[in-house]
Amino acid sequence: MTLNLSCREASRLLSQAMDRDLKLTERVALRLHMAICIACTRFSAQMQFLRRAMNRYPGPEEPECK
Amino acid sequence: MPTADTAPSALDLERHRPHLMKFARLQLRDESAAEDAVQETLLAALQGRERFAGQSSVRTWLIGILKHKIIDHIRRRSREQLLEPLADELDPDGPRAYFQEDGHFLEPPQQWQDPDQALQQHRFFEALERCLEALPKNSARVFTMREVMGMETGEICKEVGITPTNCWVLLHRARVSLRACLEKNWFSGGAPTIG
């Protein structure tokens, strides 16, 4: 695996990191990319948020109309 | 031990039935299996209502039980049938529509203001549900098995009869699509703050 990831490849690894343990080379490549990429840093945080949201799905009850 | 007055009555439980049905339908995509799972859930809740701790809402407690019943149903099926042909959803380069040729984001992710505050809002989950409904069917199915039911990818692959690689492709696609959909429909400045 190349150390020079595109955002598309980085997003793929960030997604897979939520489902499996990444290999060392994948982790290193991802870390290098994240150090210089604000878009993927946000993407990563938003993936964690998405997991929290799905974990709470379907969320709070509809406010009752009186 | 919870006191008797935290235990929900049969009526308290029953009023959640429509909501539980909606949840079960979405996960099982089979009306009679959904009815069975909800019936088993309400029965188990009624029998175990003294164990309701009162720390979460009754609905959250019921959904927790329902998730287990749904997973039981999925496991009992000989093999889940994927609903649609997979080919369209299995581009190994991932969801192309969201990236440029060179792999850059077409629309780079923006900063989301205080996203966790959205988790308190009913309307946020309605928006999330609309985004889920807009996903390609197989991606949506595998994604909800993973993220709502909390199943491991190994088990999901086995149940739906696809390889782990394909499973990861579908999950990646679902996540990229949902992220973009939420950004567009909730986090792009116009997000309502009253839920």
Summarize the structure.
The complex is a heterodimer of chains A (66) and B (195). By secondary structure, chain A is an all-alpha fold. Helix content of chain A is 64%, strand content 0%.
Number of helices of chain A: 3
Task: Determine the fraction of residues in helical runs of chain B and give it as a percent range.
Answer: 40-55%
* Overall number of structural domains of chain A: 1
Which oligomeric state applies?
heterodimer
CATH superfamily of the largest domain in chain B: Winged helix-like DNA-binding domain superfamily/Winged helix DNA-binding domain
The most extensive contact between chains is:
A-B, 33 and 47 residues
**Unreliable runs of chain A:** none
* The first-level CATH class name of the largest domain in chain B: Mainly Alpha
Rg of chain A (CA only): 16 Å
Element pattern of chain A in H and E: HHH
Mean pLDDT of chain A: 92
Structural class category of chain B: mainly alpha
Spans where pLDDT lies below 50 across 5 or more residues of chain B: none
What is the rounded Rg of chain B? 19 Å
Query: Using DSSP, what is the number of strands of chain A?
Result: 0
Any idea how many domains of chain B? 2
- Average pLDDT level of chain B: 87
Largest sheet of chain A: none
* Straight-line N-to-C gap of chain A: 60 Å
